[in-house]
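Lab notebook page, bench 4
Experiment: in silico fold of construct C2
Operator: M.H.
Input chain length: 126 residues
Purpose: comparison with the prior construct
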Amino acid sequence: MNDPETLAAQNGFSHWAQLNMAAAVPLEAVRDMCASGRCGRYGHNWACPPGCGTLEDAAAAMGRFDAGVLVQTTGTLADDFDYEGMEAIQRRHKRAFADFARQARLLLPDCLPLSAGACTVCRRCT
């Protein structure tokens, strides 16, 4: 049987580590960035505020767990402005995370996969 860290390795993440969930705290400052419209997804994506629920909702969901695994995808960019390279790394991470989350749910049905950024599964969110 696989554990989440083994799944992380198998899915090709660059780095992974155990996470003490007490250290993972939803921040009002991040919600403020969302509300300011920096990425344009606020109010347009169910994985983003306000559709994803309140900070209290997130804290309660995360509070059900003592431990987790933090994953990271890194890559090499041609220069500091290599936007296409950044996008490619992001796509690679999102694909790996989707596979990782699916496999983690099979291994641990009550797990809570969380990822940074908006969901991009559908071309246009309902």
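Observations: The two ends are 37 Å apart (CA to CA). The first strand starts at residue 15 and ends at 20.
Next step: discuss at group meeting.
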